[in-house]
Amino acid sequence: MRVAVFQRLGALSLCTLLPQIVQQSAAAETEIFLADVNVRYHVLPGVSLGHRRSEPARTELRAKALTLPKASASVSVQKKVSWESSCEEPVRLSFFGDFWVPPHGAAAGLKQGIFDHLQPLLNWADFNVVNFEGNITTSNKREFPKFPFALKQATDSAQWLTAAGVKHFTRANNHSMDFGWKGAQDTSAAIKKAGGHYAGIGPNLNAALQPMWMEKNGTKIAVFSLTTTYPAEAWAASKRAGVAFPAASTVKEIITQVRKQADFIVVVFHWGDELKPSIKPHQEEYAKMVLKAGADFVVGHHAHVAQKIDSDYADGTIVYGVGNFLFSSLSRDAKFALGTHAEFCTSGQPDETGATHSYRLVFTPLMTHNRSTGYKSRPMSLSEFLPYARQYLKERHFSPDLEFFLPGENQVRTLSEWLQPRSQASKEGRAVN
User: Fold this and answer.
1) pLDDT given at position 4
2) 309 with 318: CB under 8 angstroms?
C-alpha cells in the first residue's frame, strides 16, 4: 500500500507520525486516529495517507498489521558480550534511546521477544537506562488536544523491559504527559509494579528534577532526566505536575547538591531536531551548563538517529543523540542508533592525572530500521556500520578516537581503526567487509 507524504504547516517541532492507537478489531485490524500533522518521516504499517486536507478535523482510518520481514543480518548467538575493562571492578551502565511499542500491532505481538537481538548487550551492563515514551493507561482523555499525537504503550511493555534487564527509565520527554497527570500516574504505577525505576517526571518541578540512583560496590551514580521538547504546558512547575525542564538556576543547584553524594553524575536530555545528526545551539548550551555544574557526561535522544558526539570538551563528553532503542514507526530514515556503554571506575590511588574516579565510553552501532528488522532492533554488522562511520567522521559528528564495539567482530576498536584500508587490515589478518 502506497504511503503518501503530506506536511502540516506551522512552528511545532514534532517527533514522528505517532497516531494514538485505541483498539484492535475482531478482524485483527488496528483503529488509528490521525490528526492533520507532519508525517514526512514516520508512518505506520498499512496506512495510506492523502495530501493535506483543508479541514483540520481528525481522521479515522483502519490499517492492517505489517507482515514482519526477516532480519537482513545475523546477530551474535552470545548470551552476553564482553570486552577488556578499563579497571578491575567497573560499574557498568548502558544508555539507549527511545522506546515505544503501541498496544496493538506486529511489534506488540512480539512481546518480550522484541529484545532478542539486543539481549547480549543488555546482559553486559549492571544497569540499563532507556527513554520510555508515552503512557500505560486506560485513559483516552488527551491533555493537549492541539498537540498532534498522543502515545500509548503496550500494557505489558514495562514488564518486558524489566524482564530483559532494563529497569531504569527516563521519562522527561514530549509524550509522558499526553494523557495528563492521571495517565502519567498510571504509567508510574505500571513501571513500579514491574520492578522499574524512573526519573524526569513528578507532581512538581523539584520532584521531577530528582535523579535515579544506582549503586554497586560502594560506587554511587546519579542519572538525571531532562527535556527541552514541547508542549511547554507539560513542563513541571513549582505547583504543577509534569516533566523536568532544565531551568538553569534550579538544575545547577540540584546538581551541586547531588555532587556531594554521587561518585558520578550523568544527565540525559530529550531534545534536538528529528532525523538530523547535527545539533541545535540550545543543545550545546544546556549540555555545557550541566557539565560545568558538576555532571560527568551527557546523553541525549529524541532525534531517532545518532547525533554528534563531542569527546573533546574539557568538562566531559557530550553524546548529543543515541537514536532509537525500539521505536515502532516505519520511518525510512531512522536506521542508525547507538548503544552507549559506560564503565565507571573508582580507586583509592590517583591515576596519572591525579584522579581517583574515571569513566570510559564504548559505543555499539544499532540497526533500528523496522522495515528490515521487523521491529527487532539489533547490532549492526561491520559492512552496515562502515558507511555511517565514514559519513559521521567526514561531517565531524564523530572523532576518530571514539571506541566502538561490534558484537559480530567481538572486539573494541577506535573509529579510525575500524576504518583502516583493506590493505592494512589484511596485513593484520583481520577480516574486512
Assistant:
1) 31
2) yes
